[in-house]
Amino acid sequence: MERPFVEIDHVWMRYGGSGGTLALRDATLSVQKEEFVAVVGPSGCGKSTLMRLVTGLWPASSGSVIVAGKEVDRPLSIAGMAFQNPTLLPWRSVLNNVMLPLEVVKPHSSRLRRERPAYEDQARELLELVGLKGFEKKNPWQLSGGMQQRASLCRALIHQPDLLMLDEPFAALDVFTREDLWGVLQNVWMKRKPTVILVTHDLREAIFLADRILVMTSRPGRIMIERTVELPRPRTPEMTYSPYFQTLVQELRGYIDEARRGEEVAHAA
Amino acid sequence: MPPDATAVAMPAGAGEIEASRGAAQAAVVRKDQPPANDPGITRDQELVEAARRRRILIKILPWLVITGLIIVWQCAVYLFDIPQFVLPAPTVIAHSIVTWWVPIIDNASQTLMTTLIGFALANILGLTLGVVVGSSVLVYYGLYPLLIAFNSIPKVAVVPILVIWFGIGTTPAIVTSFLISFFPITVNVAAGIATVEPELRDVLRALGAHPLNIVRKVGLPRSMPYYFASLKIAITSSFLGSILAETVAGQKGIGHLMIVASSRFEVPLVFAGLIVTAVMSVTMYTIATIIEGRTTGWATRSQNDMGASSGN
Prior knowledge:
The complex is a heterodimer of chains A (269) and B (312). With 269 residues, chain A is of the alpha/beta class. Chain A contains eight helices and ten strands. The model of chain A has no long low-confidence stretch (mean pLDDT 88).
């Protein structure tokens, strides 16, 4: 087996010095290249911390975080990120919002001026892929929440990152829009094949999208269970009604309850 | 309504899917028939007309209020026989403006000049300082108490010091106008930059973006609505500063004119000075508002672009 693309090895993370909150306790996980992994867990279990460690926004207190064979000690420009809040810039058109990363990330920032049309074509292509063709010139506030999230996804992908980090990207959307966007994201992933780490608290979302699901314990977080999802691709909305899918939801739900009970025990002790 | 209520009440087990589907169909009533006719059109036109009248009313409302105030003022002066040195009637003030228009224009242009120079300096320093304070936590904590302390000093107490340093005349007016107006600009620009969404900051930092680049691409454009909002406060306080310095230590300017007029009991001329100041202030305020609308229309889109967003 080739070397995993992301390796998190016995990582501890404590905020604010020795007396601070312990967010991760001895977390170990690995993600293969081009794999789609979902991380689920009770709220406040350190899922978002995990994201920030992998992208190099924060250093781990101890243990090692290795991405693409290199120890992460500063922000990686090979990662794209999207959050629950689409945070598009209201003074820029959708197209220019998508192109924002190119203006700050090397080596694109220096090439952008000369090769702008080529880059714009890439951005248009991405927008078409997520179903936003014809909205390039619109302003973000003219878009619905789901469309803004599609644009945010494009912004995360424009510099062709090897690693896509998604922190509850669809949590603020209504159920219908959310399920639409699962399809969009699966489509993007199957075309571009980035390595994806999706943090979510929606079990159906995790099962629909991921090859493998990691369940975390409550804070301080650790990986409790790894569960492989054996559904063929492309996955369809109909599959979510299949017995396999339903049983898996219940199984994961059981793990989450177990993790939360662990929390209560820890609090009582 | 369902003909077979028991079947609906007991939803399908694994083997009863077909049976329940039939029952479910009976429970569904489609309500999406097209409407017979559309009675909404005339109502629509009425609403459009009402909205248009309302917009016109909003445009002329300030003028109505001002005119009303002047009429009330005029009537009150005559009705209660108020002496001229207490409260001159609007007509008397207007007469005074006409009589003294040469010195008024002369002094008003002096005040306008000192105000605008002071205001321009305040913009340069306020923007620079705001960017620095807003982008660096260390600078924020180091500088903010000093800024607050400085801002709370009554500027009228500073004017005598300025006179010792620069002598009587134009310079103290410019400096006071500057001192009084740079603070709101600094605070607002800093607030705009410091409140960039943490997620967006993470998105860009994760790409390896330099902090200065984040300020340039996101912080600065984002702080522009704050900046223009502060300009509206700053320009009016700028006038305040100039006139303050002119009344304390001036040889020229509207402030000086009013002091001289009041010492001669020319109360209508004092009021004339007040009104000219108000007119200049409102004019500058309006200009600031127009520039704001042109450059940062995206920040106020909710009021004028509802039509554009409802399409999606």
